[in-house]
Structure formats: C-alpha cells, structure tokens
Amino acid sequence: MEGILPLYKEKGMTSHDCVFKLRKILKMKRIGHTGTLDPDVTGVLPICLGRATKVAEYITDAGKSYEGEVSIGFSTTTEDASGEVVEQKIVDRTFTRKEILEVLSSLTGEITQTPPMYSAVKVNGKRLYEYARQGIEVERPSRKVTIYSIELLDDREEFEGETIQFRFKVACSKGTYIRTLAVMIGESLGYPAHMSDLKRIQSASFSLEDCLTLEEVSKKLEEGTIQEFIRPMEAALLHLPKYEISDKLSEKVLNGSVLNIPEELTEVSGPIVVQDSKGTALAIYQHHPHKVGLMKPTKVLKI
User: Fold this and answer.
1) Residue of 38, 80, 197, 210 marked active site
2) Which of 51, 56, 106, 136 could hold 131 in an S-S bridge, CB 3.0 to 4.6 Å?
3) In a shared domain, residues 188 and 266
4) Would you place residue 242 in the very low, low, confident or very high pLDDT band (cuts 50, 70, 90)?
C-alpha cells in the first residue's frame, strides 16, 4: 500500500497521534504526515504511505487554505482558545464592515510574522514551546510569509459587543501562523485578539472533499475499498513544474544522471518533477549549483 491518504484530522489529536493510529489500523510502519496541525485545529492532513513518504516535504512546502474565526477583546498565551488570557480590553465601539475589510486587505501579500512562543519553531536547537513551558522568554526570529487572499465569511455590516467574533477564509504560503494572523487583525483594529477556531480546508492539491476520518479509514479497510481513497504519489507534486522525458532517458534518470535544463524551465528556481511519457514521477531535480545549464537529482522516486 503506497500513495497519499488525505485524512480529516479531528480536534484533540496531534498530527503524530494520527500517524500512530494509522500505523495500527493499516498495519504498516512507513507512514508520515505532511506538516503539523495543532491539537485544536481540524481539517486536511495528507498522510504519505510507503514510498510516498519521499514526497512529504513537497506537500509541506505547498500553499494551504484555512477557515478560521478571530475573537477580538482578549489575547492568550498560545494565541488560540487553549491558552491563558494575557490581555483583555472590552470592545467599546462598533466596527463597520468597511473597516474590517480594509484591515484584511492590508494583511494581504507578503507580511512579516513573529512565531508564537507556543510553536514548534526551533531556537538554539530547542523548540519554542519547550521554552514556553519552562516560562523562559527567548527572542523569536521573524519570518516573511505570503497571504494570497483573505475573505470575510460574515455578511454583517456592523460588528459590536464586548467581544467580537467573525470568520474568515485565508490562502497562504508555507510557514504562516494563522493564530498570529488573528492577533495581527486585532492589533490593526486596536484590540487584543486570538484565533478561536481553525480548520484547514486545503493542503497542496488535497481538499476536505478528499478526506476520510480515522473511523472511515477503518471501515473502508474492512470493506476492502480503502485503495479507492489513496491518491497516487504524483498527486503530491501537482503544483510543481514538470519535465517529460523519453523512455530511453528514464533509465539514466533512475541512475541519478545530470540533465540539461529544458529551455522552458531555465527560470525555475525550485524543484522540478522529471516524469516519463505515462506521467509517472521518476525523480525530483533542481538546477545544478555549480554547472550552468544543467540540473541534478535531489531525490529519485521510482526505487
């Protein structure tokens, strides 16, 4: 059994919990997830089975989409609903739809984020959440991320109350913290805020409609239909540029040969999928670091 199993991660579980349970259900060890989702977050978690674990990083590096809820009025230690209240400020004014849309628009494009203390980012070889649990505050490295779009999922014209909640949909690049985005939305409106709910609705080419819950995986396995829901490894690479080669050249690729960069891919800076005439991914190539006009394999897949 190999390929990509799009899993619906339920609330209260870590991504590692999902892998652990799937190893028991499917009775196989070679399983990996494609990017950590916090326990309180639900939604799309593509799982790589067997040889497909080789392409997990390319799903992790792809864009993601989420539906979330921001709560304006208080912030928390974790920037989500599970943390302790840090700052509270009663909302004593009414926000118009126009004001909120302007804030969302201002946060679209390339922005700079500082990861929350309760996150898996490493500083000096130690994860930030480990420092946080010990009550140690360390300097966190800021990072640039891209917000491709933010859509307000609320049709109100005015927002009022001591605390204000509204839902939004966001498409973003790898490394974006949606909890931090919720805090930034609040800051732009002049109030402490946190992310009160979050669901990942898309990861690379995988969406909610593709997903099975753990319970459904067990059921499909018993019915003998689980293979119908496992996508081929190539589905993890749909967002990457492709280079189709002849069957004669395929053997050289599988042996790790250096290739000439095709003219149409000379401007590509990232990974390139080299595939045969049937669309089977053979290897991942990148521009050669020292030899102009050539590209070398970083990962041979069909082994």
Assistant:
1) 38
2) 136
3) no
4) very high
Both 98 and 187 in one domain: the answer is yes
Residues 219 and 264 in one domain: no
Distance, CA of 160 to CA of 151 (rounded, Å): 20
Residue 147 and residue 225 in one domain: no
Provide the number of structural domains found in the chain.
Answer: 3
pTM summary value: 0.89
CB-count burial class (<10 Å; 0-12, 13-18, 19+) for 131: middle
Q: 197 catalytic, yes or no?
A: no
**DSSP secondary structure string for all residues of 228-297:** GGPBPGGGGGTTS-EEE--HHHHHHHHTT--EEPPGGGTT--S-EEEE-TT--EEEEEEE-SSSTTEEEE
**pLDDT tens, 170-198?**
999 998 999 999 999 999 999 999 999 99
